[in-house]
Specification:
Blueprint: H1 12-31, H2 36-51, H3 55-71, E1 98-99, E2 110-119, E3 129-134, E4 154-158, E5 164-170, E6 175-176, H4 182-189, E7 195-196, E8 199-205, E9 212-218, E10 237-238, E11 241-244, E12 250-260
Parallel strand pairs: 1-5, 2-12, 9-10
Antiparallel strand pairs: 2-5, 3-4, 3-8, 6-7, 8-9, 11-12
The chain binds fe (ii) ion (FE2).
Length: 273
Amino acid sequence: MTTIDTARPTNLRLQEVFDDVLQALLDAITRHRVTWEEFRVATEWLTEAGDQGIEIPLMLDVFLSSTVDDLAHAGDGTENNLEGPYYVPDAPFLHHPYVLPQRQDEPGEKLHFAGRVRSTDGTPLAGAVLDVWQSNGLGEYSHVQPDLPEFNLRGRLVADQDGCFEFMTVVPVPYAIPTDGATGRLLAAMGREPFRPAHIHFRISHPDCEPLTTQIYFEDDPWLDADVAGAVKESLVTPVTRWADAGGGQYAGCAYDFVLSGSATAPSALRAG
Ligand SMILES: [Fe+2]
């Protein structure tokens, strides 16, 4: 007679989380008396999402990633925020004075961004590396939009001996996440807009501290409270001021000081959003 092997190693953490997830789904099915027809549509939608490459990560970013990101915040430095799907490693190191690489006729208003990087005890982090990336004035990212030059509006810069940095770029604008796949269809069916507020992404590192991945948003953006990814944190929103330039035009200016945690054990951000 054969006996069932009950000594098989069990991933208790997985078991616990999966059981809760499953129970939540079963509760929803029961509470809403989901029909076979609705269940069939859900199955087809999941199959379609799985066949479309980026749709599963996109869907997770839209609905779940910001909560995982909230839990990943450790220490009392600047709040982390989603890395998002558009980070490209090995962006060029820029030369001072820093200007994010852009085309001659780059659309968008000129933006001067300045700030300081320090540790939680106030020490300026000289030599901190800021890896910066953003969409352009039309909401497009290089390496995503095929007609943009490589590393357009992407680059790495280094904080000076006082931890200070400044760079010129253009003001990014709100953009819609891809709407032509399963995630977009689901949002449309629920009457939800696919927009993210304008933001600039930062990955900041220094040998003495935990690296920080975050995004900086701008006051008065109409999508701050309706971000499709639900990722905006109040502490990451900065005001924008308009200044006159020497040629009679104007440019936008903003500032943000970053604080890196000491030696927190948790990673500062997960790849998501
Ligand atoms: Fe982004």
